[in-house]
Design a protein that fits this description.
The structure holds two protein chains of two kinds. Chain A contains 20 helices and 30 strands. By secondary structure, chain A is α+β, with helices and mostly antiparallel strands. Among the domains of chain B are: 47 residues, Uridine Diphospho-n-acetylenolpyruvylglucosamine Reductase, domain 2; 100 residues, Enolase-like, domain 1. The chains are: A alpha+beta, B alpha+beta. At the A-B interface, helix 4 and strand 28 of A face helix 13 of B. Bound molecules: flavin-adenine dinucleotide and iron/sulfur cluster. The site of iron/sulfur cluster (SF4) has 14 residues of chain B, from helix 8. Chain B: This is Xanthine dehydrogenase YagS FAD-binding subunit.
């Protein structure tokens, strides 16, 4: 091993050495449970006398259901009941938004809005019988000609700002047209991204049972309080009578954030037949009964001075959504503010088609919109004959161009410099096709990663016991990110006990509420909340110790006390007196201190906590407040393209990221690594194919919906760049779960251009685009 | 999945007897094609005859002799891929197997079953679409639909589904023969190039096998070209994906001059495709870029792309050229 490689592999250890403002790489709290199969996912919950539910879905995309012939299905031995629009009494329609994925409410009427819409639920004693019967349900339709998406006749285009509350305004500043007219260098280009599906390995499922009029739902969920509220609405019952439990989630990425109508349908079925029901959705049905990332289009215009100062930036986006719901991601909120452009003009359009309502998918706005912006940055650098890193440096800014708001911290160029160094960027020959290695064309490219720091109101209960153990309870969600671990670390640090002594309970509406696990807010929100609860415990304890008649701390200033190594200490590192927790508690005559705490980030409405209890979370941050709160990164990739057959491989990728306080370098690295791999996936592999005649998805399985396999990922390096930001929140944490997959596709597209001279503006980039006849 | 009867057969003869000739029975080996399609309601056998117990006999063995290779039909893909004689003397076979599916599937799947795997055409695999192969006369949804993965050679107006496998291409290139047994008519030998039928107007009939006919072994004759042979598979990702285009090539060179060339193509044709025109174009020529390119042109002369799969024509040509140039460079 050469010395160079050695440093790279050290830097890239699974548990990186913490640098400034970083926590220890504590192994995952649930690691053992997961690798031994003992972690119980919602569909694994053992239930007595459970009936199995299998969905029947439509095979048209638009029209009406005219008849359901159930005779063959009902004759299958073991079939208990088939729920349809004719007998689903008491099922209420859902509204779109605030925790629900769609207003399309199957089984409440006969309208078909999209391919694969639920038309019935078969219940049987065995899964096999239910599936067989589901195939035998015969549905008849009055079909209408559907519009599949962009360019199809019959779609309707709506300005997002006219239809969506969360996007009342298209960010703009100055006069773009004038700026472009007077710019010596301009580009004017269009990009597109395809339909993508999350395909979490854990399939979507609902398992539930009733005890009298009380409902318990086990379902993988990124927002148990939201699910509770909405399933109650769907059934017309009191949310207090519903418990939603979701202790482990096997991949979510946004797909398990808003509740889909299946939950209430399964719950209703369970009530009807008086038995617990488990419904695990097939992989193909996961493509049509849950949310997805809709395809997007972008038109970008940029102007610059010959020395690289951007004078104007225009970004217009188009996004597909369903007929009834206005789902929009509007990534211009971020792209309009990313650099110190002069004039800015943006606009977001929704294109309504006969499709299911799309939904959040890892970095929903940034993945498509930053792909367009960062690809354009590379095109501009080429037009300027300038190094793409330098172009970013010239246009780096500490205040955003729309409202002149300052960034609380921004380490973009630190990230670029660290990545360029680790990657060896200085050895790049900028000429197209210049870096060939035998039969392989080599290309290097880079792009910016960016993600807003979001936070919401949250509540938590923390208990510290005399024996030095602690318990944290909050209905946050472990979507595979390491939430159990970092929340435990925060409590351990503040309470001065080992992390092993902290029990963390999550994912249950019996616990105090936490916001949706979305927008990468969990660590920032929950760690800030837990910190508040721990500080209340500290306050009580220190007060008791200081105001005691005797003991080592009697008469001291409580503010000078600290919790460390399972005891109270005074005098910090100077080595003042210490006393074990058991003794402090003994003198107080108590066994435990328990604190319930609520925390609200700056700028959220005062009723945010009450709303959270009622199942809706308000996230704040990013560009929404007075200050700009964002995490940044830079990604550098090498692609190799076979000179003859043009397959594209990524042998090397380096990502550097700065996201405030890093709670745990191991789980942070895993998140970023997974994100970068997903970025490669979105650049080269993922695409849901749509049959445009029928507006139906075609490759509805993970054999033909490709994601990278191990062989596709060779050297992948994550570098954590130290950053301190006291302004974002008490914990100093910026979310990073969705940072890693932003920018990757643009870096790869840039590298493909560098290798081949072909600028591919439509994802995914495949052999088809590079082979010439 | 529909209910079915299940029977185990200890011997090949027993399996054939149990299957009968009625057509509602399927043999099951690894089950990696069959159980998948049964769960999707695409294949609906009433009876399954499990041939795995017969793997204890000759059908589970690999024999390599001077005159050639004999592969039992119940040998697992993984075992054949890792067999030393196959790897050194017939690298094209070992590579075609090794580059297929995943290790887990290769551990389960049999060589006989592999030859009979069904197309990955998504319209075939989802019962709600019209498909002439699944439901004769219902139409072909792929013809004007999503057809990036479909065939450009050997297609018909009824079906353009590509044959998805890899192994069969290696066998077709090397003039392999399958040995079968039937309840009526006894054993027979079928050239691999005759085993699969192009779709014509009966795409539902995929092979010349009769109902209840069991493949027992595959034989591959030795030849001066088998050592200088390779399988090149081009796909969207580096592992665990079907071929967009593939080439099985074998060369017998006299210095740089081609004495014999064997070329078969995958990913682009409705059946394992022997490119005889390409072989003829190479015979007697100096093996260089120009000759390889001429051969590739000849191989694809009759290609009929349809929509999304047009890229397969240039891709297949490049695949052939690259495979031939790589084979020329092989140390044997
Ligand atoms: C996700 C996935 C990826 C794959 N990727 C590839 C790939 O890249 N390349 C590739 O080549 N293959 C690939 N395959 C296909 C795989 O190789 C085949 O499924 C496998 O080889 C079939 O063998 P089996 O023993 O499991 O057959 P089975 O499923 O048991 O049988 C298949 C068919 O053959 C019949 N049959 C089985 N044995 C005999 C016999 N001896 N005589 C007569 N009829 C018989 C059965 O009745 C059935 O109709 C993939 C499969 C999957 C699921
Ligand atoms: S290509 Fe063949 S298998 Fe596919 S839909 Fe058409 S007929 Fe069916």
């Amino acid at each position: 091993m050469s010395p160079d490689q050695k440093t790279a592999s050290d830097r890239n250890a699974a548990a990186p050495e913490p640098k400034r403002n970083m926590g220890r790489p504590v192994p995952r709290y649930d690691a053992r449970l997961k690798v031994t199969g003992e972690a119980r996912y919602p569909a694994d919950e053992p239930l007595n006398n459970v009936a199995h539910g299998v969905l029947v879905t439509s095979d048209i995309a638009r029209g009406r259901l005219t008849r359901l012939d159930l005779s063959e299905a009902q004759a299958i031995p073991g079939v208990i009941e088939i729920l349809t629009h004719e007998n689903a009494d008491g099922l209420h329609r859902l509204e779109f938004g605030n925790g629900t994925a769609t207003s399309i409410s199957p089984l409440t009427d006969t309208r078909i809005w999209h391919d694969g819409q639920i038309v019935a639920l078969v219940l049987a004693d065995s899964f096999e019988a239910a599936r067989e019967a589901a195939y035998r349900v015969k549905a008849e339709y009055e079909a209408e000609k559907p519009s599949a998406g962009f360019g199809a006749p019959g779609t309707e285009t709506v300005l997002a700002k006219d239809a969506v509350k969360s996007h009342k305004e298209d960010p703009a500043a100055g006069d773009l047209e004038a700026a472009l007219r007077s710019s010596p260098v301009t580009i004017d280009v269009e990009y597109s991204t395809p339909t993508q599906h999350h395909n979490p390995i854990e399939l979507f499922s609902t398992t539930c049972f009733w005890t009298g009029d009380r409902l318990t739902v086990y379902e993988p969920s990124q927002f148990v309080y939201g699910f509770r509220e909405n399933v109650a609405k769907q059934l017309g019952i009191d949310p207090e009578k519903v418990r939603v439990v979701s202790r482990f989630i096997g991949g979510a990425f946004g797909s398990k954030g808003p509740m889909t109508p299946r939950t209430g349908i399964v719950a209703l079925a369970s009530r009807r037949i008086g038995r617990p029901v488990r419904c695990v959705v097939s992989r193909a049905q996961c493509f049509t009964t849950a949310t997805y990332r809709a395809e997007t289009r972008h038109h970008i215009r940029m102007g610059a001075t010959p020395d690289g100062k951007i004078t104007g930036f225009g970004h217009e986006g188009w996004e597909i959504t369903s007929r009834p719901d206005s789902y929009v991601v509007a990534g211009t909120d971020t792209t309009a503010r990313l650099y110190g452009y002069g004039a800015v003009w943006t606009r977001v359009n929704m294109v309504k088609a006969d499709r299911n309502t799309p939904g959040y998918m890892r970095s929903p706005p940034e993945t498509p919109y930053v792909f367009a912006l960062e690809s354009a940055m590379d095109e501009l650098a080429v037009a300027l004959k300038m190094d793409p890193v330098e172009l970013r440096r010239i246009n780096d800014t500490m205040t955003e161009p729309i409202g002149g708001k300052p960034y609380t911290s921004r380490s973009l160029m630190e990230c670029y410099d660290a990545a360029a160094e680790a990657f060896g960027w200085s050895k790049r020959d900028p000429a197209v096709g210049a870096m060939r290695d035998g039969d392989w064309l080599i290309g290097w490219g880079c792009a910016t990663a960016v993600y807003p720091t979001n936070m919401g109101a949250g509540a938590a209960r923390v208990r510290l016991t005399a024996d030095g153990t602690a318990r944290v309870q909050t209905a946050a969600h472990e979507i595979g990110t390491g939430a159990y671990t970092v929340i435990g670390q925060m409590a351990a640090e503040r309470l001065g006990v080992p992390v092993e002594a902290v029990v963390v309970e999550l994912g249950d509406t019996e616990l105090p509420p936490a916001p949706v696990a979305g927008g990468s807010n969990t660590t920032a929100t929950v760690c800030s909340t837990v910190l508040t609860a721990c500080d209340a415990i500290r306050g009580k304890l220190f007060h008791a110790a200081a105001s005691a008649k005797d003991g080592p701390f009697a008469g001291r200033d409580p503010a000078t006390l600290d919790l460390r190594d399972g005891g109270v200490t005074a005098g910090g590192d100077a080595g003042g007196p210490t006393e074990k927790l058991a003794d402090v508690f003994g003198r107080m005559g108590t066994g435990a201190i328990e604190e319930y705490a609520e925390w609200m980030p700056e700028g959220v409405p005062p009723d945010s906590l009450r709303k959270l209890y009622n199942g809706s979370s308000t996230l704040k941050g990013g560009s929404k407040g007075d200050k700009m709160m964002y995490a940044f990164g830079a990604e550098f990739v090498e692609v190799r393209i076979n000179a003859r057959t043009r397959e594209i491989r990524v042998p090397r990728i380096v990502g550097t990221f700065a996201a405030g306080r890093i709670m745990n370098t191991r789980t942070a690295r895993s998140q970023l690594m997974g994100g970068m791999i997903w970025g490669i996936s979105s650049a080269l592999h993922e695409k849901t194919e749509i049959d445009r005649r029928a507006a139906r998805y075609v490759n509805k399985n993970i054999s033909e919906y490709l994601v990278p396999v191990n062989a596709d990922i060779e050297q992948l390096e994550v570098i954590l760049v130290p950053e301190e930001d006291k302004a974002v929140n008490p914990a100093g944490v910026k979310g990073l779960g969705e940072l890693g997959n932003v920018g990757t596709a643009a870096a790869i597209a840039a590298a493909v251009y560098h290798a081949t001279g072909k600028r591919i503006r439509d994802l995914p980039i495949r052999i088809d685009d590079l082979i010439s006849a | 999945m529909r209910p079915f009867q299940y029977e185990r057969a200890d011997t090949l003869e027993g399996a054939v007897k149990a299957a009968g000739t009625g057509g509602a029975t399927q043999f099951i080996a690894g089950g990696t094609t069959l159980s998948d399609l049964m769960k999707l309601d695409v294949m609906r056998p009433e009876r399954l005859v499990d041939v795995n117990p017969a793997a204890g006999g000759p059908a589970g063995r690999i024999e390599a002799t001077k005159s050639g290779l004999r592969l039992g039909a119940m040998v697992r893909m993984a075992e054949a891929a890792e067999h030393p004689a196959v790897k050194t003397d017939y690298p094209v076979i070992a590579q075609a197997l090794q580059l297929a599916a995943s290790q887990q599937i290769r551990n389960m799947a049999s060589l006989g079953g592999n030859l009979l795997q069904r197309t990955r055409c998504e319209y075939f695999r989802q019962v709600s679409w019209p498909c002439n192969k699944r439901e004769p006369g219902s139409g072909c949804a792929a013809m004007d639909g999503v057809n990036r993965l479909h065939a450009v050679l050997g297609t018909s107006d009824a079906c353009i589904a590509s044959y998805p496998g890899d192994f069969a291409q290696a066998l077709v290139a090397l003039d392999a023969v399958v040995e079968t047994v039937r309840e009526k008519g006894g054993a027979r030998r079928i050239a691999l190039s005759d085993l699969h039928r192009p779709p014509g107007d009966t795409p539902q009939v995929e092979t010349v096998l009769e109902p209840g006919e069991l493949i027992t072994a595959i034989t591959v004759p030795a030849g001066p070209w088998t050592r200088r042979s390779l399988y090149l598979k081009i796909r969207d990702r580096d592992s665990y994906a079907f071929a967009l285009a593939s080439a099985a090539v074998a060369l017998d060179l006299d210095g740089e001059v081609v004495r014999e060339a064997r070329i078969a193509l995958g990913g682009i044709a409705t059946v394992p495709w022997r490119a005889r025109e390409a072989e003829a174009a190479l015979r007697g020529k100096t093996m260089d870029e120009a000759a390889a390119t001429a051969a590739a042109e000849a191989a694809l002369a009759g290609a009929q792309p349809r929509g999304d799969n047009a890229f397969k024509v240039p891709l297949a040509k490049q695949t052939i050229v690259r495979a031939l140039m790589d084979a020329k460079r092989m140390e044997t």
